[in-house]
Write a structure and sequence with these properties.
Number of domains: 1
Strand content: under 5%
Shape: elongated
Number of strands: 0
Distance between the termini: 49 Å
Number of helices: 3
Helix content: 55-70%
Radius of gyration: 17 Å
Order of helices and strands: HHH
């Protein structure tokens, strides 16, 4: 008997407006600046979050920008909760 697969339920959340997306981006940019000021070592997660908010931002549409913000949120959480594991540079072999 074959397994039944169910489709994931679609989330019915209201899409963020461009103004909300811009405000969130500005808040993340400020958080990154503060984190860089307080960190004594480079943090790869925070650096990646900054790159997403700068290099990849301009050429993205609003839906993609909302996805970028989700990724940046995750990167900042991981980068600040586990700063030792998020250091930049290559690992010693």
């Amino acid at each position: 008997m074959p397994f039944k697969t169910s489709r994931p339920q679609a989330k019915h959340t209201k899409a963020a407006t461009p103004a909300q997306i811009d405000r969130t981006r500005d808040r993340y940019v400020e958080m990154i600046a503060l984190a860089r000021k307080l960190e004594s070592h480079p943090n790869a997660m925070i650096d990646k979050a900054h790159r997403l908010l700068t290099r990849h931002w301009g050429k993205s549409d609003w839906a993609s920008r909302a996805d970028i913000l989700k990724t940046v949120d995750w990167l900042l959480k991981v980068g600040t909760i586990h700063p030792g594991s998020a250091k930049g540079g290559s690992a010693a072999r």
